[in-house]
TrEMBL record, chain A:
Predominant location: membrane
GO biological process, any: amino acid transport
PROSITE patterns in the record: ABC_TM1
Keywords: Amino-acid transport, Cell membrane, Membrane, Transmembrane, Transmembrane helix, Transport
Cellular component terms per the entry's GO annotation: ATP-binding cassette (ABC) transporter complex
InterPro entries associated with the record: AA_ABC_transptr_permease_3TM, ArtM/GltK/GlnP/TcyL/YhdX-like, MetI-like, MetI-like_sf
Organism, scientific name: Brasilonema sennae CENA114
Annotated transmembrane regions: 12-31, 85-103, 115-137, 174-197, 217-236, 274-296
Protein name: Amino acid ABC transporter permease
TrEMBL record, chain B:
Organism: Brasilonema sennae CENA114
Record-linked InterPro entries: AA_ABC_transptr_permease_3TM (IPR010065), ArtM/GltK/GlnP/TcyL/YhdX-like (IPR043429), MetI-like (IPR000515), MetI-like_sf (IPR035906)
Top-level taxonomy: Bacteria, Bacillati, Cyanobacteriota, Cyanophyceae, Nostocales
Protein name: Amino acid ABC transporter permease
SUPFAM superfamilies: MetI-like
Chain ranges of the ABC transmembrane type-1 domain: 138-332
UniProt GO molecular function: transmembrane transporter activity
Principal location listed in the UniProt entry: membrane
Alphabetized Gene3D superfamilies for the sequence: MetI-like
From TrEMBL, chain C:
Protein family membership: Belongs to the bacterial solute-binding protein 3 family.
Record organism: Brasilonema sennae CENA114
Pfam families: SBP_bac_3
PANTHER family: AMINO ACID ABC TRANSPORTER PERMEASE (PTHR30085), AMINO-ACID ABC TRANSPORTER-BINDING PROTEIN YHDW-RELATED (PTHR30085:SF7)
A GO biological process held by the record: amino acid transport
Alphabetized UniProt keyword annotations: Signal, Transport
Annotated Solute-binding protein family 3/N-terminal domain residues: 43-272
Keyword Ribosomal protein attributed: no
Secretion signal, residue range per the UniProt entry: 1-24
Protein name: Amino acid ABC transporter substrate-binding protein
Amino acid sequence: MTPIWRNRKFFPILGQVIAAFIVAIIVMILWHNLIYNLHRLGLQLGFDFLQFQASFDIGETPIPYKSSDSYSRALLVGLVNSLRVIVFGIILATIIGITVGVGRLSDNWLVRQLALVYVEILRNTPLLLQLFFWYFAVFLTLPKTENQISLLGFININNRGVTLPFGIELSSELSTLILGLTLYTGAFIAEIVRAGILSVPKGQWEAARALGFKPNLMLRLVIFPQALRLIIPPLTSQYLNLAKNSSLAIAIGYPDIYFVASTTFNQTGRSVEVILLIMVTYLTISLIISSGMNLLNRSVQLKER
Amino acid sequence: MSSFKSQKPTILQWLQKNLFNNWYNSILTVVCLWLLFFGIKGILTWVLTQAKWQVITANLSLFFVGRFPQQLYWRLWLALFIILGLFGLSWGTFTKRLPRQMNSWLPFGWALSFPIILWLIGGGFGLQPVESNLWNGLLLTLVMAVISIVLSFPLGVLLALGRQSQLPVVRWFSILYIEIIRGLPLIGVLFFAQVMLSLFLPVEYRLDRVLRGIAGLIFFSAAYLAENVRGGLQSIPRGQIEAAKVLGLNAPLTVLLIVLPQALRAVIPALVGQFIGLFKDTSLLSIVGLLELTGISRAILAQPQFIARYAEVYLFIAFIYWVFCYSMSLASRRLEKELGVGQR
Amino acid sequence: MLKLKRGLSLLATLPLVFSLSACAGQIGGSGGSLLDTIKSRGKLICGVSGQLPGFSYVKSNGEYAGLDVDVCRAIAAAIFNDPNKVDFRNLNSKERFTALQTGEVDILSRNTTWSMSRDTSIGIKFTAVVFYDGQGIMVKKNSGIQKLEDLKGKSICIGTGTTNEQNLTDQMRQRGVNYKPLVFEDANTVFATYEQGRCEGVTADRSQLVSRRTTLSKPDDHVVLETVLSKEPLTPAVVNGDSKWFDMVRWTIFALINAEELGVNSQNVGQLANSNNPEVKRLLGTEGNLGKGMGLTNDFVVHIIKNVGNYGEIYERNLGKNSELKLERGPNKLWNQGGILYAPPFR
């Protein structure tokens, strides 16, 4: 009989047992420390605090909320606020990204250079600073409500925010966050779009031209659908980044989920529970975005024939 | 164009070809010129007449090195000199202006310079110690970004290997870690590291604030690094592994000597990209109360005589970030070309 | 292939080992009082805001300055006879209590309001009030706003993690006034946003409002309303359960106040050691054994006053007429001069 360590299954199993064992020990040590420390500080674990009265006000409440509501209601308000930013942000960033990405390949020299300058400036400075810039140097220096700027007769802009038709009002904080995230992410998307378009073989351009397509139709009907295959995977990770970066709302006072959660932590001291809530929320948002994009990806990939 | 050098186009021809070749391009050009004119005019007026740059000049040393003791600045100059020297040598060998033999000892030079520079900054072992509390501004930004990327590297590689492993337990732990961290915003990870990490450690065991910040950056960066490295691992053709097997290498040696070097070489540009990202992300440390470049700027903005000068301050530090990130991305593009990544 | 995968898996267990060894770092006990730890460490670690004009900020030369900072310097002077043996740590309003609880800082001197819940339920102890403040609201003079009710439907800028946020909520709820809070992480942002006209009002401790008003581009266009929303006694705090350290901090603050009351300042402290006044003698340690009883030298107050000055000097230097902020002393005058600043006697 061969010794047990000669069995080809022995080492893999031993390795796994050791790995599981080590992880279990680490988790136990950390858990023990946590319980001990919480006890020492007189804190408890548990989600019962979610039902307590929040007793803080929130500036933007897309769903009804007052300070006598519970923490869970406050967190829900934050979540809705986050989702507003993420949805608007993704749509606008895509539009800007495609426009600038195509602009990078324009046959107009000036447009090409401007697109390049835009991309290189926005990609190479921290988003946090860009948000400060848009908030303080742009939105807050806009004229007051009485002499607001009117674009096309129905978009009104003043230092309180932006008013769109159908009674949609965006506060300056929301507008700043959407603008900042959009322009920042747009710069990355532009590079992705450009690489995608460049990856389409020359023959395709020539064939489209030979068929007599006008330039914009050629781009829309021939080149772009093919470029999309290369664009979607990196685009997904940009969307995920945008969703995660929306948590910088805290720097400019927009009450998103991270902001409300951190106020909750502040008032209750429940750091463990709050970080768990933040984790679950963002993981869920990420999961929704990436599964949506996977569906899209499947529909544009070449069908094997 | 290059084949027609003798017929260099006149300015008018160039303008017509590049700016006004059809009606919509002409409109675009005019619109762009109009935007450019007002943009540049506005910026210049502000920079030259309205901005008060005294807040920058009065606080230059705070921006760059923070509260590092003035009489010890020579140590920082020396560190900078070492780095620039190594950069020069590397660039020389890289562009083949210096003999190729340098290649063999340059990595050692870099590896050796790392502890030496940290020693110059932090002191100890015969030098007067300077606490991490006093390293602020750009100095702290650089130190944290470099240490984090260097330390997250081994962790990231191991996680990537773990994710590729055939053993379900190891694979699942790696996937769990990578996906959880990648799903979280950095500011959440930093909050965890700064506020909660000490709850998970024994009472007597305390990490310095800067170390906790670095820990947060490492947790975060390792997960992204792992995904980059995984891309590299997947690009290694099977033939390489089989060839190693034929040569009689055992499994760990195959990974160490054959697979990893090739995989890492393939992902160098992605790693530079990640370093740029990390460098920008250090600005979030200001939200958890560290005095790196952005944090020290917020502290400077509390000086009674400079309270409302945020535009000047933020533009100035944005420029610093930009110079670093842009030169890194230029260098990375050059590196990509020279290494011929994606062409082999 | 199998061999390779086995190799991969062995390598992959390494990060786990790596992180385990990181957990088992130095574990050393720190029994006894913090005071002894500080003495053997050779310096005090003091948590401040670092971003509040007049209370704690970093000057262009890299030195910390402000009232909160000087309290820490006074403690360092009491222990080491050297006001510079302090390390300052910037803490934001969220992490300040954790930093104190976990022992990252020895003392929290960060314009923190003494409140019952903080004193009784989060494991910290407040020592002695260094600044009597109250929450106020500042508005534009021409806005016509005179009381809280006038702010109905308007925006108000606030800093997060402060008692101000909760006080405002309470006061407005009690009056049934709906308003829009605009909450920021950082006090500079709060006031910058207000000055740009994004909010009709800004709320903070009145000391801050008054000092910030002087730094606005047109100070006279703004007015701090008479309404006081709350009491805000700003008090340095230490960790619970260390009475030796607690006493030391508390009596350093009392020494600053008593010194002003007895007319002892940084100029005359040298001569006054031989004063005839027994109270002064006890304060400066030429009589009695008060300092030794606390684990310090008997002349610890001399060290404090010589290096940092008395409460009045600290106030005028950082907030009052010798500073850029020109803040009236108001309730922070001594009890025998119309204020409420009162320290128990050195006896």
